[in-house]
Amino acid sequence: MPVLSDILLSQNVEFKTKFKLSGVSTFKIGGEADFILFPDTAEKLVFSIRTAKEYGIAYKVVGNASNILFGDGGYRGFVISTKKMKGISVVRENNEKRDIACACGEMLPALSRRTASDFLSGLEFACGIPGTVGGAVFMNAGAHGSQISDVLLSSKAYDAQRDETLELSADEHLFSYRESVYSRAASLICLEATLSLSFADESVINSRINENMEKRRASQPIELASAGSFFKRPDGYFAAKLIDDCGLKGYRVGGAAVSEKHAGFIVNLGGASSADVLELAEYVSRTVFDKTGVRLEREVGYIERL
Ligand SMILES: Cc1cc2nc3c(=O)[nH]c(=O)nc-3n(C[C@H](O)[C@H](O)[C@H](O)COP(=O)(O)OP(=O)(O)OC[C@H]3O[C@@H](n4cnc5c(N)ncnc54)[C@H](O)[C@@H]3O)c2cc1C
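That is the input. Now the predicted structure with flavin-adenine dinucleotide docked in place:
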């Protein structure tokens, strides 16, 4: 069998071997991946997946790993990070709107600031979400009453099962709360998203951004490692309030704790293992269910392959 490193090098795909996944996750948790790949173009991403499939190697595409808990056992295979896939271009514009195509690795906070400085409104909600465009489309990420589905016109996808690229219209994304066609079909990878933004007064856009950031700083433990809200919002309830009402703020397992500031966040106080987080999450959901009858469902994805 040809050496995988040589194959990746032949197409200039940047990679590292025996890589501690804690180094790329906002949770700062995770064991070693055999390989982590950093393709910087859609072609290299597709090549990486084709290579994995050809040699029977497991793979997982991730963005900024801000909604992921990597397991302590790491990943036997390729973790493919889109973080280096950058690029923004204007698709069309008129006096009122501009549509922009964004590569999947563009980060939402930078995109939100950049579009604001171009007098474009629509991404004010995203200024404090530390994820990529691809991760946001996968999750239908949202905050402050808006979500990515509000501005998404279409996306370009790679279907790894059929080995073809396709264009998906807004409707074909089947968006719902924290879900999309991408989260339902594991073989679909988001390569690029086209967003439709409206021209507005820059000072109005910036004041919305500042207000959103202020709310976040006041209510979320952004100074600690985490993956954001750990649980989905159950229908008719708020996970954080349920957890707080059960007296679980500050509850700790090893290095993982329920945040004192926002009970929906599980934070890594330093040296938390994935096992600590899972045990804590299990305790929290069991306690909430026993006391309230409401089942909490994990929002954060768990990735491990032994
Ligand atoms: C401090 C903090 C605050 C947060 N606040 C919010 C918030 O307000 N609202 C919110 O919605 N989320 C929030 N999050 C969670 C997270 O930032 C978002 O869900 C974000 O959209 C995830 O993007 P990512 O690039 O990090 O995806 P990752 O965590 O890398 O991946 C998430 C999932 O998407 C898949 N994926 C990633 N990229 C692609 C791609 N290109 N194609 C197909 N699948 C892909 C991965 O396989 C994985 O299953 C927060 C997280 C933190 C740490």
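The chain has three domains: 4-81, 88-214, 221-305.
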